[in-house]
Amino acid sequence: LTRSQRGHVYFTLKDESYAMRCVMFQRQYRGTPLDNGAQVMAHGSVQFCAERGALQIVVDFVQPAGIGAQQAEFERLKEKLAAEGLFDEARKRPLPAFPSRVGVVTSPTGAVFHDICHVLDRRWPLAEIVLAPTPVQGNDAAAGITAAVRQLNDEPGIDVIIVARGGGSMEELWPFNEEIVARAIFASAVPVVSAVGHETDYTIADFVADKRAPTP
């Protein structure tokens, strides 16, 4: 779900098998509570968008119909890990001012790794980047991210670890909400920066990490 500067809202209605793009214009939206993962009841008209060659629903009314399964799981795990102290600010460590070796956990083919290299080259070119490649989306991503964090902890001289992925839907970012990823970040002997998604995206990894930063 995204909101434009003009106040229009764009989102996708999905079930287990199908999806339909939707738009709700500002005059109908008026601050209706909507978020990714929510179950909703929506009313509108089907429109053919010639520019994109696609169907969409122009929504004129929407209301929450209970919390979606993923959102419920997110809140359950967040509450559980918070009770265990994984999010406590007191345990979070300061980042090194002048890191010599920066570990990066992300996909080697994504734009995020290129962005990180570019920013580091401009801001702190003395740092060596050590990539621990992993899928950041799909069924194998959570296990891969967990293994990559542990791998960088075994690598000599790593001063800080960046766990990174670009923006995406709740489903695409879901590996960073998995408990095994949260516990790997918590167990890391090296400070961890969570750079997952955009400014408005929050994952469990953000709450556990020593520092959160939007990409890049």
Plain-language structure description:
- The chain has 216 residues and is of the alpha/beta class.
- It has 7 helices and 10 strands.
- The protein has helices spanning 26-29, 69-83, 111-123, 141-154, 170-173, 179-187, 204-208, and strands spanning 2-3, 9-14, 19-24, 40-49, 54-64, 101-106, 128-133, 160-165, 192-196, 211-212.
- A 5-stranded mixed sheet has the order 1-2-3-5-4.
- Helix 3 links the parallel strand 6 and strand 7.
- Helix 4 (141-154) packs parallel to helix 6.
- The longest helix has 15 residues, at 69-83.
- It is elongated.
- The mean pLDDT is 90.
Strand content: 25-35%
Based on CA atoms alone, the radius of gyration comes out at 20 Å
Helix content: 25-40%
Overall number of strands: 10
State the helix count.
7
Class based on secondary structure composition and strand pairing: alpha/beta
Can you summarize the main beta sheet? Answer: 5 strands, mixed
Low-confidence stretches: none
How confident is the prediction overall: mean pLDDT?
A: 90
How are the strands of the biggest sheet laid out side by side? 1-2-3-5-4
Shape: elongated
**Cα end-to-end separation:** 21 Å
Pick out its properties.
216 residues, five-stranded parallel sheet, 7 helices
Write a brief structural summary.
The protein contains seven helices and ten strands. It is an alpha/beta fold. It starts with a strand and ends with a strand.
List the helices and strands and how they pair.
Layout: E1 2-3, E2 9-14, E3 19-24, H1 26-29, E4 40-49, E5 54-64, H2 69-83, E6 101-106, H3 111-123, E7 128-133, H4 141-154, E8 160-165, H5 170-173, H6 179-187, E9 192-196, H7 204-208, E10 211-212
Parallel strand pairs: 3-5, 6-7, 6-8, 8-9, 9-10
Antiparallel strand pairs: 1-2, 2-3, 4-5
Helix pairs in contact: 4-6
